[in-house]
Write a structure and sequence with these properties.
The complex is a heterodimer of chains A (319) and B (303).
Chain A lengths: L18 H20 L2 H26 L7 H19 L3 H23 L4 H21 L16 E2 L2 E2 L3 H23 L2 H11 L1 H6 L4 H27 L9 H14 L4 H17 L7 H15 L11
Chain B lengths: L2 H32 L6 H23 L3 H27 L7 H23 L4 E2 L8 E4 L2 E4 H23 L1 H11 L1 H6 L4 H27 L1 E2 L3 H16 L4 H18 L10 H15 L14
Antiparallel strand pairs in B: 1-4, 2-3
Helix pairs in contact in B: 1-5, 1-6, 1-8, 1-9, 1-10, 2-3, 2-4, 2-8, 2-9, 3-8, 5-6, 5-8, 6-8, 9-10, 9-11, 10-11
The chains are: A mainly alpha (319), B mainly alpha (303).
Chain lengths: 319, 303
C-alpha cells in the first residue's frame, strides 16, 4: 500500500455524469421496464433474481467498494431481514410494510454488535469475524423454534399495496426493480455526500484520512451499517416473494456470490457492480450441468479477476 | 459436574485444543511475517487430511493400518502440503504483495476457495473413512478411559510445536523470520532473502496444519472437503485468544479454546448445537476487551 502512487478517488471529484454511463444506463432501464411484457415466466424469474443480486451487490459495494472493508458474511444481514420480516408476518400477523423498519433496526443492531469491536482493528479481522458471523446466524436460524429450525419458516404473508396483492412473478419483478432503482439512487447520492467522500479517503489512506479529521472507525461503521440495512430490506422482499425461507438460503456460498458480483464488474462503481450482479445471477443458469464443479468455477473466476484484472470487467477509466 | 465428567472433558478439550493449536500456529507465523491472515489455512488443513489419507491407504498395503502407516502419512502429508503452501504463496500472495490490502484479502479468499472447490470437485462432497487400527488400549482414571492414541496425539502436537518454537528462537532462519516480521524493508537491507523467508514460513505453517489434519482425520476416522472451514475459524479464534503473531500464544490459545469448548458445551444452557456460537461469542468478547490476546503485542492497523 505504501509503494503505490496515490490518486484522488474518482468519485470524490465533483464531475458531471458521463454519457458513456448514462446512455447504457437509460437503455438498460428501458429494457428492464418492458422485459416482463414479452419474456416468459422462466426468464422473468431469472431476471428477478438478477435484480435481487443487483440490490445485494450495490449494498455490499458500499462496504467493500466504497469503504474498502472485506465483508464475508453479507448474507447474514440478508438473513436477518428475511427472518425478521418472515417471523413478524407469519407468526405475529404484522403488515409486511411495517416489518421493513423493524428489519432495518435489527440489521443495525447486528451491525453494531459485529462492527463496533472489529472495525477498530485491522481490516483482515473484519473479514474473518464476518465469516464467523455468517455461520452463526445460520446456526441460530437452524436451532431456534421461532425460525422454524432446519426445515425453515413457512407461510410468510404476501405484501399488499393499495389493495393490490403482489402474487405473480411479474409483480415481484417490478417490486425488485423499484428496490434496485431506489438502492442505486441511495448509492449515487451517498457517493457524493460528505460521508461518501470520507469513505473514499479512509479507503485510500487511513492515516491521511485521520489526519484531516475523519473519524475512521465511525466512517467504517457507517458504511458497514448502511450495507447491512440494504441487505435486510432485500431480505424482507425476498421472504415475501418466496413465502418460505430456510437457513440454507443464507450460506457462506451466498455471501461469496454477492462478493463475486461486486468484484467481477468493478468495485466501487455502480455500473460495474450492476453488470457483475447480473452476471452472477446468470451463473447458476449457465453452469446448470456443472454439479460439484460449480464452486470451483466461481473460485477460479474470483482469483483470475483479482490477479489479472483487479479493477473488474468494467473499470473506471478516470482513476 | 462430577469429577469423572471433568476429567473426560479435560481429555476431550486437550485433544481438540492441540489440533486448534497446531493450526493457530500456522496462522500466527504467516501473520507475523507478512501481516496477513492466510484465509487458505483452513483449507490447507483439509488438504493435509486428504493427502494423509491417500498416503495412508497406499502404504497401508505394506505396513498395515497401525502406527507406522499413520506416521508415514503424517510425514509425507506435511512435506507435500508444506510445498503446496509455498506454491500458493508464490502464485496467489507474492504477485499481490504491494497491492492494496483489500485486493490481497480477496485474492487470499480466492486461493482458499480454489482449494476447497478442487477438493469438492474431486471427492464429490463425500465423507471418506480414515480407518486406522490403533487399538483402544490405555489407562483408566476412575471411570474415564484414556487411550494411548489420545496421549500420543497430544504429545505429538506438543512436540511439533516445541520444535517450531526452537526453530524460531534458536536457528538462523528463525532469526531471519523474526527480523522480517519486525521490519521487512530493513531485513532486506541487512541481506536477508525476504522472499525465501516468507516461502519458508508458508512451508512450516502449512506443514503444521497438514500435521493437524492427518491427526484429526486419523483420530475422528473421517475426512471431508468442508472440514477446514469451521476449523479455520476456530484456529483463528485460538490465535486471537493467545495473541496473534506469537508462537507460544497460539499454543496457549489453542489449548484454552479446546478446554473452553469442551467445558462450555457441557454446561446445561449451552449444549453441543450451540458450541460454535459459544466459541464465536468468545472471539467477539476478546476482540472487544483484549484484542491483543493474552500474549500478543498491539495489532492496531498502521498502513
Amino acid at each position: 500500500m505504501t509503494d503505490e502512487v496515490r490518486t484522488m478517488p474518482a468519485a470524490a471529484q465533483p464531475r458531471l455524469m458521463r454519457w458513456s454511463v448514462v446512455l447504457p444506463g437509460l437503455a438498460a432501464l428501458a429494457f428492464s421496464l418492458v422485459l416482463p411484457q414479452f419474456a416468459n415466466a422462466y426468464v422473468t424469474e431469472v431476471a428477478t433474481t438478477a435484480l435481487l443480486y443487483v440490490v445485494l451487490c450495490l449494498g455490499l459495494n458500499i462496504v467493500v467498494g466504497y469503504a474498502g472493508l472485506l465483508d464475508l458474511g453479507y448474507a447474514a444481514f440478508f438473513a436477518v431481514g428475511a427472518y425478521t420480516s418472515g417471523i413478524l408476518t407469519a407468526e405475529f400477523g404484522f403488515n409486511f410494510w411495517l416489518t421493513i423498519p423493524v428489519a432495518m433496526a435489527a440489521a443495525c443492531v447486528a451491525g453494531i454488535i459485529i462492527g463496533a469491536p472489529t472495525l477498530r482493528l485491522r481490516s483482515d479481522y473484519l473479514a474473518i469475524v464476518t465469516l464467523g458471523f455468517g455461520e452463526i446466524v445460520r446456526i441460530i436460524a437452524r436451532n431456534l423454534d421461532i425460525t422454524g429450525g432446519a426445515s425453515g419458516l413457512i407461510g410468510i404473508e404476501r405484501p399488499e399495496i393499495f389493495g393490490f396483492k403482489l402474487m405473480q412473478v411479474q409483480h415481484f419483478y417490478y417490486a425488485f426493480l423499484v428496490l434496485a432503482l431506489l438502492t442505486a439512487f441511495v448509492c449515487l447520492s451517498v457517493e457524493r455526500s460528505r460521508m461518501g467522500r470520507a469513505w473514499f479517503y479512509v479507503r485510500y489512506d487511513e492515516d491521511a484520512a485521520a489526519g484531516i479529521g475523519i473519524n475512521r472507525v465511525t466512517a467504517k461503521l457507517q458504511a458497514y451499517m448502511m450495507g447491512a440495512v440494504i441487505a435486510s430490506v432485500a431480505g424482507c422482499l425476498y421472504a415475501a416473494k418466496m413465502t418460505a425461507i430456510s437457513p440454507e438460503s443464507f450460506t457462506f456460498n451466498q455471501s461469496l456470490l454477492i462478493l463475486l458480483g461486486v468484484v467481477l464488474g468493478g468495485m466501487g462503481r455502480i455500473p460495474g457492480v450492476v453488470l457483475g450482479a447480473v452476471l452472477v445471477a446468470l451463473l447458476p443458469e449457465v453452469l446448470r450441468g456443472a454439479g460439484t464443479y460449480r464452486p470451483l468455477v466461481t473460485a477460479v473466476a474470483l482469483l483470475a479477476i483479482m490477479l489479472f484484472r483487479p479493477n473488474g470487467l468494467w473499470p473506471d477509466k478516470r482513476v | 459436574m462430577t469429577l469423572d465428567l471433568v476429567i473426560q472433558q479435560l481429555v476431550n478439550g486437550l485433544i481438540v485444543g492441540s489440533f486448534y493449536a497446531l493450526i493457530a500456529l500456522g496462522y500466527s507465523m504467516v501473520f507475523g511475517v507478512i501481516k496477513l491472515l492466510n484465509f487458505a489455512h483452513g483449507d490447507i488443513y483439509m488438504n493435509g487430511a486428504f493427502v494423509g489419507l491417500i498416503v495412508f491407504s497406499f502404504v497401508g498395503i505394506w505396513v498395515g493400518n497401525g502406527w507406522l502407516g499413520v506416521v508415514c502419512a503424517l510425514l509425507v502429508s506435511m512435506l507435500v502440503v508444506g510445498l503446496l503452501g509455498v506454491v500458493i504463496e508464490r502464485f496467489a500472495y507474492r504477485p499481490m504483495r504491494n497491492a492494496p490490502r483489500l485486493s490481497i484479502l480477496i485474492t487470499a479468499l480466492g486461493a482458499s476457495m480454489v482449494l476447497n472447490g478442487t477438493a469438492l470437485a474431486l471427492t464429490g462432497g463425500r465423507h471418506y473413512a480414515f480407518n486406522t487400527d490403533l487399538g483402544f488400549a490405555g489407562v483408566d482414571i476412575s471411570t474415564v478411559h484414556i487411550t494411548y492414541t489420545q496421549m500420543v496425539l497430544v504429545a505429538a502436537s506438543i512436540a511439533l510445536m516445541a520444535g517450531m518454537q526452537a526453530f524460531v528462537s534458536r536457528t538462523m532462519y528463525g532469526k531471519a523470520m523474526r527480523a522480517v516480521s519486525i521490519d521487512m524493508g530493513a531485513s532486506r537491507l541487512m541481506g536477508i532473502d525476504v522472499d525465501r523467508v516468507i516461502a519458508l514460513t508458508f512451508f512450516m505453517g502449512s506443514a503444521l496444519a497438514a500435521g493437524g489434519g492427518v491427526m484429526a482425520g486419523a483420530y475422528y476416522g473421517s475426512v471431508h472437503f468442508f472440514m477446514g472451514f469451521i476449523m479455520g475459524l476456530k484456529a483463528f479464534t485460538a490465535a486471537v485468544i493467545g495473541g496473534i503473531g506469537s508462537v507460544p500464544g497460539a499454543m496457549l490459545g489453542g489449548l484454552l479454546l479446546g478446554l473452553l469448548e469442551a467445558f462450555g458445551s457441557s454446561l446445561p444452557f449451552v449444549g453441543s448445537e450451540w458450541r460454535d456460537v459459544f466459541v464465536f461469542g468468545t472471539l467477539i468478547l476478546f476482540l472487544v476487551f483484549k484484542p491483543t490476546g493474552l500474549l500478543g503485542r498491539s495489532v492496531v492497523e498502521r498502513v
